[in-house]
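Anyone? Bumping this.
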Amino acid sequence: MNHRFRRILWRSYRHCPLTRQFKSLNTGMSRGTFCKIKVLCGGLFVKRLILSLFFSFSLVNCTGFKASQNLTSNVQLLSSVQQNTCNSSFVPKKVNVHLLSNDEYNNSVADLLYTQSKGSDLGIFEARGPGPSGFTNDTSSFAISDLTIAKYWDAAVALANEVIASKSDPNGAYAKIAACAVGKSTVDSVCVDSIIRGLALRAWHRPLVEAGTNNEFSRLQAIVSADSNFDDGLSDLIKALLISPNFLFVSILNSQATVDGAVFNLNNYQLATRLSYFLWQSIPDDQLLADAAAGKLTQTDGLNAAITRMLGDPKMQRLSTAMGNEWAHLANFATVITPGLDDATKTAMETETQMMFDDIVLHDSKLINLTSATSSFLNKALADYYGVSFKGADPTKFYYTSLSPTNRMGIFGQGSFLVYSGGSPTETHPVKRGKAVANDWVCADIPPPPPNVKPAGDLSTLPANATPRQVLAVHTSSPTCEACHNTLDSYGLAFETFDMVGKTRSVYSALGNAPIDPSGTLVNGYSFLTTTQLINYISNDSATKACLARKVMSLGLTRATSNFDDRCVAGQIGANLSSAKFSDVVRAIATSRQFLNQSGEAQ
Amino acid sequence: MNFKLNRRQFISSSGTVFMLPYLESIMAPLNAMALPPPDPRRYVAIYMPDGTYNRSDRPIWYQNTGALNSSNMGEVLSVFSANAADFSVYKNIAMSAADNLSNQIGQHPGEAITFMTMSKNTTPQISLDQIVGQKTGKTVYVINGNPADPGPVDGDNAISYLNGKQVIGFSNPGDMYRDLLGKVVPSTGSSTPRLPASGKSIIDSSMTDLTALKNSLGKSDQPALDQFLSGLRTLETKLASTGGSGAVGVGSCQNPTNDPNVDKTDAATNGSLWLERFQEFNSLISIAFACDVSRSVAMMLYPESAGLTYPSAPSNLRFNGVDIVGWYNHNISHFGHVINSNADYSHESSDGIPRCITRDRYFFSVAVDLMNKLKGINDPSGSRILDNTIMHIQYGVKDGMHYAGNTIAAPLVVAGGKNFMNPGQSYDFSSYDVGDMLYTFNTMLGLGMTNFGGFTKQMKL
């Protein structure tokens, strides 16, 4: 597709207004496809006409697209995953309780309490690093101190105050949460009870227990009624809901949960929660809870319909942002020292990468584009920086632009990756680049170096202008270092044709213009001579494709995906990545046995 | 004109005349009642020993003169990005007293000794934190990264001086907790901590939820649930001490709580909980300020002679992914390379600058943590305590590699004080000395000194 056409498409993507209506018709066609169709048809359809004609007749006729195209690939992908021939005695790895990440907390209170405030700022939460999966929603990424709980409490108090303070606003949070209490001096018990049930359902993503010794409804009723006026009671209700482990933790309860070796299906509400925190990084919405109440999510059709609806929701931006921030490390990109790189270009690099994720997640492009796209989102400054032709009308805007004739491809050619992984401010660090490729994009799972490791070999024998390849050769002479460095160094040295700020180069200017030799041999025996050859190989390698699937799986399962079954399922998804769109991948993961089941564990 | 007064006019006007002096006398105390006492002002000194890089050919440490914002912080100060409006960078300010001493007993001791004293010799009498304590009659909390060598004066081990001797202070936050516990009078005035019904029922409800989870989940989930339970119990205690169901970090004075995880007698040499210990100190400082037990704090983060190595830095503080785990501060300051046993620090390692930046961020994260805590508590007027507090945060040595010819003056940050300063700026103070700054602080703190170590220039902060 030429980039003039892609440019038009991109402009239409960004402002496509009919996504939600379109998605609600559950045609299975993606937003991106729809917008393409809209453009092809001239982009001038009257919304009312489109809706009244239900798209399909006019659109299919004018474009030749068939709405069932996605469904076909879905079916292929789903069938391979759902059959799950990986292991006949399949036991999914247990997903431990998961403390909401700061972003998940912020999103959840935003959706629950209609606030624009960041709960993590109100409570002054500490930053949390990623877990083994590389994401902060990892069940292994958190530790709870007394201070953590105090901060959650302070955030809850501030949020409750914010809700009460909105009382005079007819469209504020108070009116939305406690509609039946608005304007009343005395709030009757029917109203109070409905507020408790409604708010708790959304906060804890399940109906309250209303009987037995753990009567949650009675407890919350008592909290509200202990106050002398309704507003204080509502405030205390919000605090009680937000400081509860039922809100702060995502956990899966079942009578089999404490039985070693037991495997059980997630119930409807648990599925709603897992789906919602996967795709929206937040609590389920009312429709998803209604689907759960109706038992639809444990039915194949109902689950697929819910996934389709969720994929079309603007809240998918949160998943895209999480992927950009944590997978591509954009969250820390601004802090990387980049001598010689102006701020505008650096910001453009960040935008380029986030737009790539947005294109995949929001516009349902192929996940494989992450590593294999030969075009990228560039403004003129970045296109000039990369040395590619820019044909956009507005130099400040980003257009989907061909990277030809450079050797840039996918994330590996993007400035954000090359700078972030580049190393020190003054020189590239091939091991770090290699590690970034291995851990984030090939899932080679390279362990950290052993403690107290010392450089192997005698560096003093090297010439003054020794190249990184010569220095690393000394490293790999040690059997202790060899195993990992053979992998890391091969990847890293191949990327030496990019300097620390993402510019292409062929010589080390600081080393007397010593030529750069990017060639190498991977541990599987594949030999390459050029950077382009390696990038091409990685992009098309089944391990890379499986890795991309594993990464998305990790986000959905909130844990690292390293056991045999995870790898096997990811491999099956990865095998279809060349044709699968992001929605296909999500659907395959969300209908996989890992996603739908949980294992028990004795206490 | 008709000057005739009728009886009614005479009586009413004469009443006013007779009452005027009396009205005046009763209005004075009424005016006094209308004006609340001013909020107390506090001083926090955070001293970062050893040096950092600040050469102009390095990544930016200082910013261009003008307003700071989250996008122009640079690599080191980015840790302050959420607090851009609450701190300033002071560029090019001279350290003449330190320079005067640096050639007598080495650079580091001169910097530490003069940091808050501007002493012209190696036996300083009193430092600014202690002056605040004397003037206000409040406790001075001295926090020391290493209590080694409590001799009368020994260079880089101390920044706080009283009566010609160094004040060592606390290395273990548990010791400060126990000291503070006896001095705090919670604002409830109640000797028996009591949790109001709603606050108690909220925490009870959460504990019941937690118990249900504990009974229903496997063993690998239990540690997280236990941590949560511990947090809830501590929260319950805090709420009881504040007597309400409001925020525990906001508002009134409360009893301190101890964190047994960081209450270690080997704090001086155990680096494993370095950051957590200072965060706990910050919590205790917040309480000391909120309860007006103290109005000055001197915090020495890590003397050069400290025998501890750092734990891993949080990933968000690591610059270019370079960690400080297992490193001594001294070697980091010298850019990570000791060339031989003769301590020739003139060579840099390739990770030296990035590790130095990570260490800088690690140090500054302590200051940011305290800023955030002081933002979360209020004075009686409702003003944030941070806005009534000067936080003086400074490196000891200008340049870790002693590139004297390349230094562009002391890396210095001043935070807080919004009620009497104008934070949020990158200032060029090339015509001033740190002594002038301390003299100006004296004025802002109302200490009444006519000079500070001979310095008398007022700075516009």
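Late reply, but here is one note on the structure posted above: Chain A touches chain B through 67 residues (CB under 8 Å).
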